[in-house]
């Protein structure tokens, strides 16, 4: 009985500590995406900038919950994003588009600039899943829904 109790306490302490060990307290990032990288989520400042194309850009307050940040950090860790090269050349697109990250975690900074579109490689598919999840989180926020629609397009 004592062994079972000890094992239960050990498991609970490992599970209880794992979340804080997996998720750094200083985790924040900027995520720029789209044509000319004009859409920007900045978790350092709690803002989001939406590219309205013909009508310029608009910035609003937009904060992620702790749960959302943990979900994003886990996705980054799962695809080994912290070991990506700083510059990644995807398929060339016009107008210029892609994804940029500036990530702070565990007292470090990581910058990733993914230029262009994706191929069918596994790494690309994993990156798409992560960026799609982040964009879905942004678009689910009331602050985003209140922003004006895009007018026009880039050619």
Structural class: alpha+beta
Portion in strands: 25-35%
Radius of gyration computed on alpha carbons: 19 Å
Mean pLDDT score = 88
Count the E strands: 7
Give the oligomer, counting copies of the same chain as homo and different chains as hetero.
single chain
User: Main β-sheet: number of strands, strand sense, barrel status?
Assistant: 7 strands, mixed
Counting DSSP H or I runs of 4 or more residues, the number of helices is: 4
Helicity, in percent? Answer: 25-40%
What does the model show?
By secondary structure, the protein is α+β, with helices and mostly antiparallel strands. Helix content is 37%, strand content 27%. It is built from four helices and seven strands. It has helices spanning 2-22, 66-78, 122-140, 142-145, and strands at residues 28-35, 39-42, 47-51, 57-61, 87-89, 97-105, 108-115. A seven-stranded mixed sheet has the order 4-3-2-1-6-7-5, with no helix packed on it. The longest helix is centred in the first third of the chain and has 21 residues, at 2-22. It starts with a helix and ends in a 10-residue tail after the last helix. Mean pLDDT is 88; it is low at 16-20.
Topology readout:
Layout (H helix, E strand, L loop, with lengths): L1 H21 L5 E8 L3 E4 L4 E5 L5 E5 L4 H13 L8 E3 L7 E9 L2 E8 L6 H19 L1 H4 L10
Parallel strand pairs: 5-7
Antiparallel strand pairs: 1-2, 1-6, 2-3, 3-4, 6-7
Helix pairs in contact: 2-3
């Amino acid at each position: 009985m004592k062994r079972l109790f000890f094992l239960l306490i050990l498991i609970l302490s490992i599970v209880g500590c794992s979340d804080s060990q997996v998720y750094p307290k200083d985790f924040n990032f900027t995520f720029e995406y789209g044509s000319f990288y004009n859409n920007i989520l900045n978790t350092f400042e709690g803002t989001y900038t939406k590219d309205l194309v013909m009508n310029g850009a608009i910035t609003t307050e937009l904060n992620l919950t702790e749960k959302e940040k943990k979900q994003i950090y886990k996705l980054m860790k799962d695809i080994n994003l912290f070991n990506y090269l700083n510059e990644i050349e995807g398929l060339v697109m016009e107008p210029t588009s892609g994804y940029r990250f500036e990530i702070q975690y565990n007292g470090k900074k990581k910058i990733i600039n993914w230029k262009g579109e994706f191929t069918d490689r596994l790494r690309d598919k994993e990156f798409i899943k992560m960026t799609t999840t982040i964009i879905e989180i942004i678009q689910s926020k009331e602050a985003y829904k209140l922003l004006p629609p895009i007018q026009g397009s880039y050619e």
